[in-house]
Amino acid sequence: MALDPAFVDAVRRALPADAVLSEPEDLRTYECDGLTGRRVLPALVCLPETTEQVQAVVRACAARHVPFVARGAGTGLSGGALPVADGVVLSLARMNRVLSVDLDARRIVVQPGVTNLQVTEAVAADELYYAPDPSSQQVCTVGGNVAENSGGAHCLKHGFTANHVTGLVVVLPDGSLCRLGGVAADSPGPDLLGVFVGSEGTLGVAVEITLRLLRRPEAVVTQLASFDSMDEAGGAVSGIVAAGILPAAIEMMDRLTIEATEQAVHAGYPQGAGAILIVELDGVAAQVEEDVAAVERICREHGAREIRTAADAAERALLWKGRKSAFAAMGRVSHSYYVQDGVVPRTRLPEVLRRIAELEREHGLRVGNVFHAGDGNLHPLVLYDERVPGEPARARELAEAILVACVDAGGSLTGEHGVGTDKACAMPLMFGEDDLAVMQRLRRAFDPDGIANPGKVFPTPRLCGEVPGPYRRHPLEEAGLAERL
Amino acid sequence: MPSVCEVASLAEASALLREASARGRTVSIERAGGEVELRTARLDRILEHEPGDLTCVVEAGLRLSELNERLRPFGQRLPLDPSGDPTVGACLAGDLSGPRRHRHGTMRDLVIGATVVLGDGTVASSGGKVVKNVAGYDLAKLFCGSRGLLGLVGRIALRLSPVPEASRALRVRSGTLQEACAKARAIVRSSLEPSALDLTWPGCDLLVLFEGSARAVGAQLETARSLVGGADEQAWGAVDDCRPLAAGRVPVTLGSIPDVLPRYERAVACVGAGVAHTVAPEPPDPRDPVEIALVERIRAAFDPAGVLV
């Protein structure tokens, strides 16, 4: 079914001539996001430059029940920006201006197409920065960050996108404009701002975003500790948390990832280590100094073989370079890999890591572990060779088994990559029918016709088959000892 | 006469609301107004607390003081400091906070999951009990500030903070709001990291709180004093805080405070959050009419019989 010509005319009238793409070769660019395994060619791509143009497109979609998918830079890893066939992709890439900065209020107002890093660049001269730092921050857009409630390595201390958005102007799925929050997130009613952030483009399109900025800390110290085993490193993480220290980041890498990264970028990571931790502390100098000493002591107590401290910005950048290029480095040791994103309570890290090792053996595949240990956010990289028959399917099964292990340990299906299309069918692992039905009620209150990013977040029979996924009660819940949250 | 019902479980709350929906009786949660007044005082358990995870799951009727009392032996706390001693559920549904929101945020920043009972009796959970989680809609945040009009918040999962070793405050007096704002600006532009930065009207006082290790707090207090003067404040939070009386909240910045605060009899501005709590006159609803209409649609979806008042 092609688009109604009257609809296409209405859209073309509202937008500049070069802002509407309909040729297959132009549409191809938009057929997938960072989850490249799933591709759908949209019917039309719109590149609005103003809020009015976004409204015009959404109104035209609403009038004819045409589905639309908002898109930033397309770096998302869960297929949240996967187009709908016969639908519209609304790229916000051309809405890329910083609208205003208030240094005293520590707020910046940006359009959705501004990249994450551009926010910090816009205020760096004034000693301010924007805290959430997804690995793709050089290219990913603030609009996409709002849709996904993006995290990053430094969210442990400073929080996620939702904690830094104080105001939004959104185009609702009927094309109307709504202002939520502003310089303050406070509202005399329910926190619509809070629920909009992370709603994966299903409740509307953010066209203006007010962000909280932080002052550059007086001191930043990055430490690298190497251990013989993941168990020891995991114990050190729990020790740091239990001691009441709140680092800006605690990252962990396993042997496989350390070796691959070292070959790729020569970050100077200790060879032969079973695990490393990168711990970054920031804040006022006197506090950081004490915390650095305490972290060092705790790491030694848990068997650290070597602890290095980055003495300057260049050394710090090198320590982080290894961590930030870990995914890419895996390309050197494996033909293909699948990045999983799950969360476990911090205290359950060691047992879940052991379970992942068991699953590796059961499935006959290797898994590289590199993750945000401080907040229990795992990113297992399932390595496989897509040329070997059966391996892609086995990799997929292994990745799903890891998710089940995370949820069973009291964790989550996704810490920062989102549900999108990738995990919609896995939602029943974590939520019951009523939970999902109530979320759908909210969705319909925003979008009665279901035209904003349909097919994402929630399991549908078309996507997942008629049989709903297996929602399994937690053993404690079965025993009546705990109720699910 | 309204009947008062102290529910002992979410199942009881669900049955009560289902029944009210079927019979068209109005229900008010933790306040007068409905034909049935639903109270949460018996929902006062700590269901889970995992010290190593810095998280806990509590029932909504638990008093904040009781929670923090029980967390203290573990060196942990929920870093919310509203006036009085509200329940955790009231902190969420009423969006209550105090000076420490400057650093720790409000309930929307601390809640990681919730189980709610909608107006029609449906029990639903969202979020979880891990600090990082983006699976599904964050209904716990939606219920922040919902004031009992979408449903009952029954269970709440929270992220906790370590109790700091030391906590010291500075009171800086000024003659005018302009002068107080200039001093606040000096703090904001410095690399100091206060836990609270409040500005009062008509007092024109700046209250700055530092928390952390004893040495770091002492160093910060000295730096702050050299920047803006001031004296040690012992009765932190007890003086001039008009939040309990405040009827309104208005957005403010250091640029707008000298114009905005004098419109009110009393006010206290939380500088970092960009908001002032104001006492008389009551400010108009600052919300976009489109937002108000959207809230009504959500109410209709969560409480189709309209029992919650």
The run of helices and strands of chain B is EHEEEEHEHHHEEHEEEHEEHEEHEEH
Q: Which band does the percent of strand residues of chain B land in?
A: 25-35%
The helix count of chain A comes to 18
Q: Give me the Rg of chain A, rounded.
A: 23 Å
Tally of strands of chain A: 20
Instruction: Walk across the major sheet of chain A and give the strand order.
Output: 15-12-14-13-18-20-16
The largest sheet of chain A, given as strand count, sense and whether it forms a barrel, is:
7 strands, antiparallel
Q: Which stretches of chain B are low in confidence, meaning pLDDT under 50 for 5 or more residues running?
A: none
Structural class of chain B: alpha+beta
Most extensive interface = A-B, 95 and 91 residues
Amount of beta strand of chain A = 15-25%
Percent helix range of chain B: 25-40%
